[in-house]
Design brief:
alpha+beta, six-stranded mixed sheet, 12 helices, 26% helix
Amino acid sequence: MGSIDPYGWRQLSVGVCGGGIGGMSTAIALRRAGHDVTIYERHDFAGEVGASVSCAANGTRWLHEWGVDVSKGDPVVLKKLINRDWKTGEPVSVYDLEDYEKRWGYVYNMFHRQHMHSMLKNTATQEEGEGTPAKLFVNHACKSIDLEQGIVTFDNGVTAKHDLIIGADGIGSVVRTIIGIHPAKRASEQSCLHANVMTDKAVAAGLVDYSQNAALEYWGGQEGKWDKIVLSPCNGGKLLSYYCFFPRAVGDYNNQSWGAEDRPIEELLAPYPELDAQVKAHLAIGIEVKPWRLWVHDAYPYLNRNMVALLGDAGHPMMPHQSQGACMAIEDAAALGILFNKTYFRGNVAQTLSIYNTVRLPRATRVQSAAAKAAYNINERIGFSNNKNIATYKVEDEKAKLTIEEMNAYDMYMDIEEQLAPSEGQRFTKKFWKGLPLGMVLPNGVTVGE
């Protein structure tokens, strides 16, 4: 199918509502595909507090394909996933990533959110690189969209007309409501406070230097409880990003926003009287303590309507426990970049977005469901789900668990070609099924295609 004559391709005027990681990734992908892209961000990016962002191989591969200078994001390349005993800090389960790049072609990066965003924004808007630089307008919050004419109206009174409109406006998406999706959601039974610890401050205080492990590290999560600490190093190891989970009954932050005032350290430490003393001492010197509201969303029925499509958290909000939120947004952007490139796009936006929906919705909602399970059972988490030889290993359904192989062996080009074949009057004969190699035996015992 790669040799199909590109007759019918046309350059589109694309409006991306939302200038976060997903929105910037979309701008890059569609710029590379030859389109004219404008990004509209509701805020001005000022005063943001940084947290970490995971970018496994299934996300990193697209950064390289788009020509993003990943070094500008100052990532930590992860070498391990470590689950530690809640009280002693001793390792309970370790998933080694030393051969990760060799197996999957790309490394597992851990970025500081602000550095990653800056890296993507620069790539989207700079003169260098393939395609027309994307335009960026801040303080443009989407208010309404004329779904017949493709006209976006913003809160500031500005209007803009586009051939293709992408709703990358996050978990509180306005675009989602406009295309008729009204989420069935509920507050999670789990709360979260986030804190940053500067590595040099921890070392100066005589504490263990976790940055040397180059690992995502977890305390708890084996006992079927909501209590869990997640540590992710970023900013080249200079910053340790902590996500601190506990039952909502202990502290409910669903009515507080990330941009609210910092919470006191005492509040951060209160849920954890028996926590490993080393990590608790780290948290005691934490800064920028912010609440992270956690909502559980049921899967949405669709991602597109007319010339509008949803992307990232706007289309499939998920709990953070598979560390795949950013990767799913990047994959969404990659799918749009492929579908609207000169090989595959035939000029019909709505028809092309229906293929986007067919390709992206099943994969993203599978991760969404798996993330909800991993909230209280770390054995469901990608990587740890392969460690079946530990005493505390138990998952809800062995055949249904998500594995690192399913995430990283996925070939989006093959998935898209399989879905496009019927509309092109062709049979798909390549040895893939929904993007995975036919006959591949996954660690959960499932054989792809059976």
